Amino acid sequence: QVQLVESGGGLVQAGGSLRLTCAASGRTFSASAMGWFRQAPGQEREFVAAISWSRGRTYYTASVQGQFVISRDIAKNTMYLQMNSLKPDDTAVYYCARSGKYYISMSSYNGISDYDYWGQGTQVTVSS
After folding, report:
1. Measured between alpha carbons, how far is 22 from 96 in angstroms, rounded to an integer?
2. CB–CB of 35/20 below 8 Å?
3. Which residues are CB-contacts of 38 (< 8 A; sequence separation ≥ 6)?
């Protein structure tokens, strides 16, 4: 069983930064990739970024490319999302997720169905 716990959310002014953390635990944690998703009120959950666990390859949705940075620390079983230049449109609950699927292309890790374990989410609110 895998447990994922997000932290680091909060209220920030537009232009500010936040760093989200996703701590993974379990008897023997493993993953092919980890991802971040977000869900704004009244909207569907959407893909934000993914990282391959062993090699650290990354993939971002176009709207956050150059603004967010995903990273991981294998020794700590922890994933991060550094969010810079935040905008009110970035307001959402952010979820981390684990994938056990293996894809050649990182762009394939952009679907909800590609992930089998999810955290409870952390709220990010960006004020204008």
Report:
1. 6
2. no
3. 45, 46, 48, 90, 92, 93, 94, 95, 124
